[in-house]
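How a chain folds remains the central question behind the approach discussed here. This step matters because it turns folding into a mapping between discrete strings. The sequence in question and its structure tokens are set out directly beneath this paragraph.
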Amino acid sequence: MDVFDNFVDVSLLHNRRIFRIMQVKRKLYMRIRGTIFLGCVFFILSSACGQGYPFENSRLSRVDDLRIHYRYWEGAGAQSKGSCLLVHGFGGSTFSWEAVADSLHRLGYEVVAIDVPPFGYSDKSHRINQSVTAHAQRIHKFIHQEFPGRCWHFAGHSMGGAVVQAYALMFPEDLTSVTFVAAALFAELQRVERTVHFLLRLSPVRFVAGELAEEWLLTYGRLERLLESAYGVAPDRQQVLAYLDPLTVPGTARAILSAAAFHKEIKKLDAANLEVPSIAIWGDADTWVGHRSRLPALDRMSETELVLLEGVGHNPMETHFDEMMDAWLPFLIRHSSPDPYDH
């Protein structure tokens, strides 16, 4: 009887495991089918109505066969004080700069805030080269395609700070000034591909990982805790949802997880070669990308002004708007040309 009972127990355990595996497979299948359906709906809606995005001033462009979502605050024509382009950080979107863009627009500037692919509401292709030099080159094509003839004030936050740093080194003739906010500055960049574990190079693995991330990792509670860590203060519901909504657009998680597999810097750069007038603004309570962690880059950028905001975390333009603008506007106005088209 003992042998028989053991056999029955083993059989039941085996059947339970098979049942669990079937449940997981079915749930994953339903998740994939749902994602494909939502992706189709998203594509149809955005194609059918060019304004199928959550902002009245949303625009669409196409660069290197990628859809680029951006928001546009029109300038005052001949009275415009200049043109500003704002670039968000990792996981962010145009929302990160919304209050700043509104303020600059009221002051008479033409403003563009861009969603860097695959973030925000831009393209979710999982084969995008997400290196900072590739992003910079993509933005270069974008502004010359959509806004030819301007000379720009660029501002970038966190990852976006590295992108605008790369742009200033690659295309200095386009810029009047560049502003780094809690920026992931680099001292040097080399033209090398990242070494990636072979599993991450497998498309099915990245797909499944992306589906699991969207299902279990990108939740309101987890994002709320991340934002509180970055902000240094508790975010409100509107702020959490403003980050969560674009991050849960189907395909976003997979595209983010695929970044390393297609990452390749396209140009060798040295921070010491920066010639565009620049300012770096940091919260001295930033625990994500503290200014001390960027001293190797800042030491090479000897002409860059450094401003520290007391008691401020990683996202000053969202959490300490007045302090941020008080630090930035004198620099911006000082470098604003009466003619925004004058190089």
Residues 1-15, 32-51, 197-202, 205-213 have pLDDT under 50 and may be disordered.
